[in-house]
Amino acid sequence: MRIRYAFSFFVLMLFLCASISIPTAIFVFRGNGAAPLTFVIDAGHGGEDGGAVGADGTLESEVNLAVALRLEQMLALCGFPTVMTRRIEEISYPDAAKTIRERKRADQEYRAALINGTDGAVLLSIHQNQYSTAGPRGAQVFYSSTPGSEDFAKEMQARLAVLCGDHRKAAPISPEIFLLKEARCPAILIECGFLSNPEELCLLQSETYQTKLAVVMTAACIARRTELEKAYGKG
Ligand SMILES: [Zn+2]
Fold it and tell me: Ligand 1 centre and the CA of 127: distance in Å?
């Protein structure tokens, strides 16, 4: 069953990437002698922080994790090392953190230390958007001020636009977003879609769409690999 699942992913990946003009030969990576990039995949929120909530009670943290785990599989399939900031919904907090605010801060500091302690790190922080009305939909990518982040975000935005059918632009991240402010590596935050839009909420809950998102994200990682390596002086 697992093998069939992995095979389905692979076939879907070939199909989707072919449809966005990426040569299939890139799936066979040959190292250029440089230390590899490691994609740090951050499933936003989790634990006591569920993030945004859909009209049906769907938690952003759960959608983020589902997409993040698929992205991990896809990148691994393409030979990229990955690190996850979390793999389950539960988060264990330090005893010293008593309030929700302190616990959230401790969790964010743990994630920042993990990112900054990873050689060749490239951060992809996965989130879902929410708005006060049901209209807005589509993905938007934000980037930090570190070298390589803006171009990576633009690549990601362009590819997600093909999937989502919208024309948003990648934008600089707000300085209030702790993780992207702290990360010293190329770092982007991907709002995959709006939980407040009923049709998009349905899509974001579907395993097929989650897989498509992961495939498109992986294609952007592949496309910007050389440029991201240059951010580390390896290109
Ligand atoms: Zn979020």
Answer: 4
Rounded (5°) CA angle 43-71-67: 50
Question: Domain limits at 141?
Answer: 35-230
Number of domains present in the structure of the chain:
1
Q: 15 in a domain, yes or no?
A: no
Q: What is the pLDDT of residues 186-205, one digit of tens each?
A: 999 999 999 999 999 999 99
Say how many Å lie between the first and final Cα of the chain, rounded: 39
d(CA 128, ligand 1 centre) in Å: 5
What the block records as the tokens of 16 is: 């989707």
- Closest CA relative to residue 122, chosen from 46, 36, 44, 191: 36
Report yes or no on 201 lying in a domain: yes
Q: What is the pLDDT of residues 146-159, one digit of tens each?
A: 999 999 999 999 99
What is the Å distance from ligand 1's center to 85 Cα? Answer: 14
Calculate how far, in angstroms, residue 141's C-alpha sits from the geometric centre of ligand 1.
Answer: 12
